[in-house]
Amino acid sequence: MKFTTLFSALLLGLSLTACSSPDGAATAGGPKPYPHTTCLVSGNDLDSMGGAVTKVYGNQEIKFCCNPCVKKFEANKAAYLAKL
What we know:
Layout: H1 2-19, E1 53-57, E2 60-64, H2 67-75, H3 77-81
């Protein structure tokens, strides 16, 4: 019984290590991280309005400075995604 528990813990630890990425980037199946420190819509610093708003579109994480920028982005996604 003790061997089975130890073996299971070892396998779990190895699988978690294999799934993590050393630089904090998204692993397979996760969204691509947002590459900028400014809002894609307004160009403002992400913390300028009290904290970034994060959304995922397709396989891309997008960060905004505020909810009104999210609405502007959603009205014209293609134009803003071209900025990436």
